[in-house]
Amino acid sequence: MTMPYWVVLVLALGSAAFALIDHVRRLRQVERKLNVIMQKLGLDPNAFVEPSAEVVALSTDPSRKIEAIRLYRAQAGAGLAEANQVISRLMAAAKLDAA
């Protein structure tokens, strides 16, 4: 007796979904523990990371904005939206200084 392919597919997808849910749950637990450790060490897990001199230099050239965003993300561990905001503010400040 053979099982239809769609039954195997449904079982495989269900298994993958449960595995993903478990990984997300475990990741949240690790993040909570890491935040507790950082707070006990006196570190703010949500602290703003100042851009390095290299990021500031890249942000003065509008054609290198993407490079500046990538470098800031790599250095600060920031998300795309946060890095874009930081670089945009740096570029606006550079325009005001130039004027």
Account of the protein in words:
The protein has 99 residues and is an all-alpha fold. The chain folds into two domains: 1-46; 53-98. 75% of the residues lie in helices and 0% in strands. The chain has helices at 5-40, 53-59, 65-76, 80-98. Helix 3 crosses helix 4. The model has no long low-confidence stretch (mean pLDDT 89).
Question: What is this entry, summarized?
Answer:
The protein is built from 4 helices and no strands. By secondary structure, the chain is mainly α.
Record keyword descriptors for this entry.
99 residues, mainly alpha, 2 domains, 4 helices
Chain-wise SSE layout:
Blueprint: H1 5-40, H2 53-59, H3 65-76, H4 80-98
How many distinct beta strands?
A: 0
Largest sheet: none
Strand content: under 5%
Overall geometric form: elongated
What structural class should be given to the helix and strand makeup?
A: mainly alpha
How much is the average pLDDT?
89
| Total individual domains | 2
Proportion of residues in helical segments: over 70%
DSSP helical segment count: 4
Order of helices and strands: HHHH
Q: Ends: how far apart?
A: 80 Å
As a whole number of angstroms, the C-alpha radius of gyration is 22 Å
Runs in which pLDDT lies below 50 for 5 or more consecutive residues are: none
